[in-house]
Amino acid sequence: MQHAALEERAHLSRELHDTLGHQLTALRLEAQRVRKLQQRAGGTDPRITVSLDNVMARSSEALEQLQEVVSTLKAPQLDGTLY
Questions:
Q1: Residues 17, 63: contact at Cβ < 8 Å?
Q2: How many helices (H) and strands (E) does the chain have?
């Protein structure tokens, strides 16, 4: 039973990483792309710059939190029953 629980945790970890992790990374890359396009166009609207900075910061924070969750799910939880 404990083996099944560990397998389910590993499955959830992979799913989170493969779906949400990739989406957050894509969001961050898109924000970087918009920033470069804005710079090339000569635009320096500070409101856009602040918004892009916020998107990048929040996506980085979300990725860090996701990595913590994935690490927690991957770590086996030993409760002493295996001794």
A1: no
A2: 3, 0
pLDDT at 38 over 70: yes
Distance of CA 45 to the CA centre of its chain: 28
What's the full length of the chain, in residues? 83
Give the residue, 77 or 54, on which the prediction is more confident.
54
64 vs 56: CA distance, rounded Å: 12
The number of beta carbons lying within 10 Å of the beta carbon of residue 62 is: 16
pTM above 0.85, yes or no: no
Q: What is the Cα–Cα distance from 43 to 22, expressed in whole angstroms?
A: 29
The one-letter amino acid code at 72 reads T
- Per-residue DSSP letter, 82: T
> Residue 79's Cα: distance from chain center in Å?
29
Say which residue the tokens 């970890």 belong to.
13
d(CA 53, CA 48): 8
